[in-house]
Amino acid sequence: MSWRSGDQGRISVMLAICLSGLLAVIGVAADASGQVRTVMYADSVAAEAARAAGQAIDVDHTAQTGEHRVDPLAAEQAAHAYLDAAGVTGQVSFNPDFTEITVTAEAIYQPRILSLFGLAATTVTGSHTAALVAD
């Protein structure tokens, strides 16, 4: 069997094009799931930081009025301590009567495969609100 000189190397070009397309599809799937995991992590960290902030009860106010609310300074410090320990940044906010704490956590996702194609890191956010419950 003899090879025609005009066909040499054509399969290599086609294989290279198909493999780069396949790598892009695998990259989209892998990096999309990685970004979803990072969003879930940010949500989880926000929930736990809000829970930690909710533990900072304003004891003096509760003793004087019987109303439960958080100490905003201590609650914000507790939430930021949790966010820092988790390696994310975020914001803490309160409703006007200090009975609900909302924490928004921001995490950075660095693509693993699509970074080869020039996709940069993405900041994702997660948010959670914790409400005081008085029984």
Q: Characteristics of this structure?
A:
50% helix; alpha+beta; rod-shaped; 3-stranded antiparallel sheet; 135 residues; 3 strands
How would you characterize this protein structure?
This protein is α+β, with helices and mostly antiparallel strands. It has one domain. The protein is 50% helix and 19% strand. The protein contains three helices and three strands, in the order H-H-H-E-E-E. It has helices at residues 10-54, 59-65, 72-86, and strands at 89-94, 100-109, 122-131. The protein has a three-stranded antiparallel sheet. A hairpin with a 5-residue loop joins strand 1 (89-94) and strand 2. Helix 1 (10-54) packs antiparallel against helix 3. The protein starts with 9 loop residues before the first helix and ends with a strand. The model has no long low-confidence stretch (mean pLDDT 89).
